[in-house]
Amino acid sequence: MTKDKYQPQPQHKFTFGLWTVGNRGRDPFGDAVRPTLPPNDAVRMLAEVGAWGVNFHDNDLVPIDATAQERDRIVGEFRHVCEETGITVPMATVNLFYEAVFRDGAFTANDPSVRAYALQKTMRAMDLGAEFGAKIFVLWGGREGVETDACRRADEAIKRLRESLNYLCEYSLDQGYDYKFALEAKPNEPRADIYMPTTGAYLALISTLDKPEMVGVNPEVAHEHMAGLNMTHAVAQAWESGKLFHIDLNDQVLGRYDQDLRFGSANPKAAFWLVKFLEDVGYAGPRAFDAHAYRTEDYEGVKDFARGCMRTYLVLKEKAAQWNADAEIKAILAEINEPDEPSPNVGKFSKNGVQALLAHDFDRQKLAAKKLSYERLDQLTMDILLGVR
Fold first, then answer.
1. Is 210 a catalytic residue?
2. I need a labelling partner for 24 at 20 to 30 A (CA). Which of 65, 337, 373, 379 fits?
């Protein structure tokens, strides 16, 4: 039998959260359509479809009201299943959005006891992730926002968030966990407005932290698309800043609620540029799929969903290699990037360089007349994606 060249392999580092394959299809207008999938069964499912790793919120694995004995039993059984199946745990996170106590936020809540509880819960989630060897800890502030700005000054919320992040960095160092924190932005939902709406907003905040080297970002396709932004540009900024610690792959139609669609299913061209960027720059971290199957599916359909996420990534990876090797594309890129005439070096400021730049006589008409074959380049891209080239 011929081996499927799009079969996921461990080196691809494809991961899914327990909350993704375990999503029961509940929405604001309808109850669950799939039975509960226990964490151990979810791991076995991920191994069956070829995933490399599994991620979890604290309460995805251990119920919030579990006793210490129950926690230890659950953790032990989960570890056994991970070892049995060869599934790794590269990332852990904490649920600070589901329980009613977080209705006014977690780290940014007005009540200092809520903020303290949020820190306690997060530290315990860090303890849990560390037991499985996780080195990345994602923080998504789903309730860190407002319906009305009458509730607090936004700058006070930012200060509270900064204090919490500084505290968690110190806790990680004190415990010797060696975590990298990855902050996940979203413009809205479940709050009307979330304080850190974009990846760029988090990158600005990180620079103000006490230990900025420990903190990066976790861009998510759907969250950037919800704001009408270009996911690849957000990822590129994070990468260029040395802050791309993790990434969430899914898909989203502009103007809709947070859909968490199968990767590449809504915007394959945007997905192509994202995959091409990640592969071109050599991103070596996990490729996490934060999505879920259609509400119409049973658990066999959930397996189809998971396989589809990974398959689409690998197809687009192959298309990216084809794009890079295409002779006509390479010729167009060379023509675009070839200067028509010698030009002063403006890479680094110097007094001599400034004088040369000010004295240089640019031919504006010639520069404006340079051929830029972007229409052809884009159509060649489409031809490759559509399989006719």
1. no
2. 65
